[in-house]
Automatic annotation (TrEMBL):
SUPFAM superfamilies: Periplasmic binding protein-like II (SSF53850), Winged helix' DNA-binding domain (SSF46785). The keyword Nucleotide-binding does not apply. This is Hydrogen peroxide-inducible genes activator. Pfam families: HTH_1, LysR_substrate. It comes from Microbulbifer celer. Residues 5-62 form the HTH lysR-type domain. Transmembrane segments: none annotated. PROSITE patterns: HTH_LYSR (PS50931). Belongs to the LysR transcriptional regulatory family. The lineage of its organism: Bacteria, Pseudomonadati, Pseudomonadota, Gammaproteobacteria, Cellvibrionales. Keywords: Activator, DNA-binding, Transcription, Transcription regulation. InterPro entries: LysR_HTH_N, LysR_subst-bd, WH-like_DNA-bd_sf, WH_DNA-bd_sf.
Length: 311
């Protein structure tokens, strides 16, 4: 008689698949490699399929393992949501939520909103992690996050998006640049300009790429910033001009003598952010309440920097 797979076995299966290594998965899970191997062998015997192929390139999923991986993720996500539902019933909002944010937003937004959230929900805790939006979206769907604040639009049937605010992008040039000192710059003046941006993994990179294409500017692919701070320093050093998020400018650039900030005349550049969660999440009704509170706090604390999208 076959035994049903255990939750632990499915967790081990997913961990090895994600890390392509028994050793790394064992270290991450805090178990010995022999114990991990034993559990996977038992899972393979129960399912009557071979899940992994070991080679010099690492531990690879077999075709059968690849077909079962998403099913395993779905089972684990359902169990996680069952646990969360039970916690919410037992404790109300006295629980910890995993919140994902992009590194181009989190450090400049969250210090302004977390105190207000804590004042309303004293027992609620937020475990915050930063990651690029594409990775955030995938890991949110897989259950690694409960919530995420992400750039919009987001096209995913399994996710719910509640708009929060629209943030302007500011045009930044070195202090000795011919366009320095102008509060409004004509879009035509950017034709041929060398524009710096972040690495391609960032959503921000693709937005700036589209701007350059529309304006006839040149995207500097040889010099890409790893963070907004490095991007700013490259502008200071005269490697090019750049667009920087309004919240970053508001938070980090007080009296910026080495560079000058302006906007494009008759062509405002913006990016939109929303609070995102899985459509099936047990806390989805609370998350809408949370989004409304976030909008209130952002309007109060940052209403002169961003445009809140009231619903």
């Amino acid at each position: 008689m076959q035994n049903s797979p255990t939750i632990k076995q499915l967790q081990y299966f997913v961990a090895i698949a994600d890390r392509t290594s028994y050793r790394r998965a064992a270290e991450e899970l805090g178990v010995s490699q022999p114990a991990l191997t034993t559990q996977i062998s038992a899972l393979e015997a129960n399912l009557e399929v071979t899940l992994f192929e070991r080679s010099r390139a690492g531990t690879l999923l077999t075709p059968e393992g690849g077909e079962l991986l998403q099913k395993a993720r779905t089972v684990l996500l359902s169990m996680q949501e069952l646990r969360q539902t039970a916690d919410m019933i037992a404790q109300g909002h006295q629980t910890t939520y995993k919140l994902g944010v992009p590194p181009t937003l989190g450090p400049y937004l969250l210090p302004n909103v977390l105190p207000g959230l804590h004042a309303r929900y004293h027992a609620m805790k937020l475990y915050v992690r930063e990651a690029p939006p594409r990775l955030l979206q995938r890991q949110l769907s897989e259950g690694l996050y409960d919530l995420a604040i992400m750039p919009m639009p987001i096209e995913a049937n399994d996710l719910t998006v509640e708009p929060l605010f629209v943030e302007p992008l500011k045009f930044v040039v070195p202090a000795d640049h011919p366009l320095a000192g102008k509060k409004k710059v004509h879009p035509v003046d950017l034709r041929g300009e060398k524009v710096l941006t972040l690495e391609e993994q960032h959503h921000f990179h693709h937005q700036v790429h589209d701007i350059c294409r529309k304006l006839g500017a040149t995207l500097q692919r040889d010099y890409e910033g790893t963070s907004l701070d490095t991007l700013r320093q490259m502008v200071v050093m005269g490697l090019g001009v750049a667009f920087l998020p309004g919240l970053y400018v508001h938070s980090e650039m007080h009296n910026p003598e080495a560079l000058k900030v302006s906007e494009l005349k008759s062509m405002p550049i913006r990016r939109q952010h929303g609070l995102v969660w899985r459509a099936s999440a047990p806390g989805r009704f609370f998350y809408r309440e949370l989004a409304a509170l976030l909008r209130e706090i952002i309007q109060e604390r940052l209403g002169d920097v961003v445009t809140v999208q009231m619903t």
